[in-house]
Amino acid sequence: MRSFDFAPLYRSAIGFDRLAQLADAALRSDNQPSYPPYNIELVSEDQYRISMAVAGFENSELEIESVDDTLKIVGRKQGSEANRAYLHRGIAARDFEHRFKLADHVRVTNASLENGLLNIELVREVPEAKKPRKIVIGGSTAPQLVERQAA
């Protein structure tokens, strides 16, 4: 296991402690589940899509939950597999749980199940108050804020 010292980051940057914690957690968690397989796609600058192969699962057997900065996807098979006799079983149909850490201002906008793929649409919506603003230096004690022009 490899360890990194984030002390230089803390000396020169403010508010990036969460980033360091995420990097540290990613280095420690080698047991990330690989079932079911999934893709994370950058659709546009502020839009993302998670596509998860969930063949054999129905809508009622899937649960998607977004709490704070975590997206949790759970699949629980409800059908009885005990009375089936397989000669070959190549399609996995076991329960699963995946967790994804979401960046600030990322939220789920839609989820759909089509052709065995669970597609979860996400968007990053930065509030106006968090967008960059140009600060004009003036003689008064309060800085004057000028809205940045869209290029």
TrEMBL record:
Domain named SHSP: residues: 29-140
Domain of life: Bacteria
Matching InterPro entries: A-crystallin/Hsp20_dom, ACD_IbpA/B, HSP20-like_chaperone
UniProt entry keywords in alphabetical sequence: Stress response
UniProt keyword Plastid, yes or no: no
Keyword tRNA processing belongs to the record: no
Family designation: Belongs to the small heat shock protein (HSP20) family.
Protein name from the UniProt record: Hsp20 family protein
